[in-house]
Description:
The protein is 38% helix and 0% strand. By secondary structure, the chain is an all-alpha fold. The longest helix is centred in the middle third of the chain and has 10 residues, at 23-32. The radius of gyration is 12 Å and the shape is globular. The model has no long low-confidence stretch (mean pLDDT 92).
Amino acid sequence: MECKSNKNDCPCTYVSCSKHGICCECIRSHRMNDELPACYFSKEEELTYDRSISYFINQRRKK
């Protein structure tokens, strides 16, 4: 399966990342670190650069 670039729709603000806009590579990388990619977070949450699953869960519990 070919992984295509999707830079125009990528919500990640870390644009110098080599995986920026390449969803399948981004997800693979974050999975290996027990993290979630930026597209799981709100714009404000994404700016914290905390990609941990626990941060994601804690933010959802607040809502």
